[in-house]
Amino acid sequence: MAIVREILALRRLDPQGLPLQEQLYARVRRAVVDGRLSPGQRLPSSRALASQLGVARGTVDAAYARLAGEGYVLARGPAGTVVSPNLRTDIQSPRPKPAVGRTCAKAAPATQPRPFQLGLPALDMFPRGLWARLTARGARGLAGGSLAYPEPTGFYRLRTALAAYLAVSRGVVCEPGQVIITAGFQSAISLVANTLLQPRDKVWFEEPGYFLARDALQMASAQLVPIPVDDEGMRIDVAEAYAPDARLAVVTPSHQSPLGVALSLPRRQALLAWANAVDAWVVEDDYDSEFHYVGRKLPALKSLDAADRVIYAGSFSKTLFPSLRLGYMVVPAALVGRLADAANTAYHGTQILGQVVAAEFMSEGHFARHLKRMRALYAARRGAFARALVAELGEEVELSLQAGGMSLLLRFRDPVADVDLVRRALRHGLAPTALSDQYIGNVRESGLLLGFTNIPETEAARYAADLRRALEYPNRGD
Amino acid sequence: MAIVREILALRRLDPQGLPLQEQLYARVRRAVVDGRLSPGQRLPSSRALASQLGVARGTVDAAYARLAGEGYVLARGPAGTVVSPNLRTDIQSPRPKPAVGRTCAKAAPATQPRPFQLGLPALDMFPRGLWARLTARGARGLAGGSLAYPEPTGFYRLRTALAAYLAVSRGVVCEPGQVIITAGFQSAISLVANTLLQPRDKVWFEEPGYFLARDALQMASAQLVPIPVDDEGMRIDVAEAYAPDARLAVVTPSHQSPLGVALSLPRRQALLAWANAVDAWVVEDDYDSEFHYVGRKLPALKSLDAADRVIYAGSFSKTLFPSLRLGYMVVPAALVGRLADAANTAYHGTQILGQVVAAEFMSEGHFARHLKRMRALYAARRGAFARALVAELGEEVELSLQAGGMSLLLRFRDPVADVDLVRRALRHGLAPTALSDQYIGNVRESGLLLGFTNIPETEAARYAADLRRALEYPNRGD
Questions:
Q1: What three-state secondary structure class fits B474?
Q2: What gap in Å lies between CA B393 and CA B468, rounded to an integer?
Q3: Given B103, B147, B164, which is nearest A126 (Cβ)?
Q4: What is the pLDDT of residues B59-113, one digit of tens each?
Q5: How does strand A202-207 pair with strand A223-230?
Q6: Which residues of A, range 289-348, sit inside 8 Å of B by Cβ?
Q7: Which residues are within 8 A (CB) of A2 and not within 5 positions of it... i.e. 6 or more apart?
Q8: Is B29 an 8 Å CB contact of chain A?
Q9: pLDDT tens digits for A148-165?
Q10: Which residue in A395, A439, A437, A400 sits closest to A420, CA to CA?
């Protein structure tokens, strides 16, 4: 306890700075994230810490409450407050002081993703050995100019491989010169927003929508206009009525994020006609279209884009792995120069080795084979997990089983505060996502989004039961 | 020629889009950058291309003139216009159509950086084999959680290694939790600008200064206030008189970019006092302080920063290699939370493998050894090249031999248009940089910045003679 107190009270809070409660919150959060405080470790009582820091007890209580709300700590009533026992403590957060100068034999100790975490491919099934061999070969080939600043628009062979892949797989016909490589989707959307938007420009944004895209657009001072989504995707008619003067629309036409529906063909046409008429741009976030299980999937919106208004954005985070941090855009010919210059200014190029390896992975045919295997694997995992959920929670919930994607959506027959359910689940080491957190406006639906890609078929029943218990729903057998 | 015409006239220019001249410029530039047009290849005459595209001949002339000005093409008078023969055609720009699906045996054909190019470490002397071995080992260790989204603030072991290194080498004492890993300096300055500045906020910026930092700040809608630099660095007194209400100052205190002078101690103190008094922030861009040859170098500005107002920014581009795209910041405790959140929004973390390898390279002691070797190498290359320049151009120029850094500055005794000299040099395959291009305002000094790090001692005389000939200065022996 003495050590914990020392960590938290090492420096006095700054009375001139942010609100004290904010400072204390940040300090504890940082210590947890850094690993200086370990999962399960007890924090000082609010009375003791308040006295040591010379602040009001209410200040500490407020900081602890916020930390508890965000899942960093767990209030155990009379037993005090502890660091959440089930926090992911992965390679970024080794617990005890990491030794400087010590030889780190292996690169990174492996830990598993948290159950139900969204947006992760099946990390257990990635062809690691093959990737490592290609990486070793790529690293040996780095010399001379390939050590210098990378071409801002990306490694040419990767752009060529992507142009070929997107033509076949998504109906997107483009020249390699229109492909711009980015450090993932967040980089792409930030780049587009910073380049094409003026502060306060209006942007059509799906309601509910993808929160990281929302944050990036807001960081660029865009004014998001939430547009409701129904069974056919974004309500283009509503958008045109509310904000015909928007400069940009951001859509997920293949599997709407998070609801999973596809944007219907009439709406695709309406969206493109609007963009063309008012000289606006459309970002197509095609984040997981590779994984589709039922019926035929539609080609990309970009394939219909005769007027060249669509910026198509894809990522290797779902098709390869997220820590590669590689994504790509296909941009209208009229925007190539501006976006290339902006990429140079904002990033000065994207790391070369990952691009080299991804290009080889694609051109040697591994990419197509890997996607085929993952499609079959995800279909099986999705089916098994859906059956297990129905078996555990059938009476209580409505399960949205969309035609594609990497997550399931549970809605509850009775209205529930999904954020409370998420909090309960986090305490049990489970990481579902609250549907209501994906909205901008005040009218929100409640539900739980559950990533299934990392739930092996043989474990589906166990995870479904864990979830039921964490949510404190009765056992159907009871 | 038929093929060239096909490339350039494949699609008609869009009469509704950007100015036609702009469109044609972008099209040729892209074809050159993509490698669809090769160095030395002849372009259609402006008359022929204009008729084929259905535009005025003046439009083609204007586009060609701009391309010539930027070094992409070379006007050979009656012999027509050709793609610049000495363009760097590196791995990003393979010449003839790269075959999709073809096995790419080795990752990347090696080419050399252009002579005198700024800001590159000695690419020929990088310990490639060692780096490749560490990379292979790192790649084999990637599994589970290390394939998922990286911690937004960076790989913890690298942050720890950097905290230890910066304490010893730069006098910067910080917790690993204050170190944020970025995808290079451009990412860092963009992140800081987008997070801390409101549009039109004033920023003190060195005049002359580092143009990529300037561009990134302008992209974030900052209002740059150019502050003159003299022998003691930025004129803090002038800055305080002109723009006391600035929100940020961006400085290169160790070796001012591009002049190479150090910010004096009294000015350092004045800068920090101002920032503390008006609650502004300071970015210390410590881009090449590792290379210092004469006398003792000052510790970092950050080491004096008792009030915690300085964001220290460093990069591995100069100490390792640029295409790694890794940089770092040490940020004030009060900003950790905000900048970490912003990093997550803007990038969603930085690629893990490069971080893992950099961490091992540092913790196994290779980094310190490599820097020591490079310091000695650069001192030798700098001396040899300076002597060769004096031997070739002694009467004509004034050579600024600063105490550190990776470039030399030539000023000419007679006033010259340095941009013309640069254009001449580019035609000879040399890539000096014009000093006058590093200014924001209209009062500009003229000179040539010459990177010396990639000029082997044995080649110094030849390169100096090449430069003299390219600049059309008389041979001193004549």
A1: coil
A2: 7
A3: B147
A4: 888 788 767 765 677 777 666 787 776 654 433 333 333 333 223 333 433 356 8
A5: parallel
A6: 317, 321-326, 333-334, 336-337, 342, 345-348
A7: none
A8: yes
A9: 999 999 999 999 999 999
A10: A437
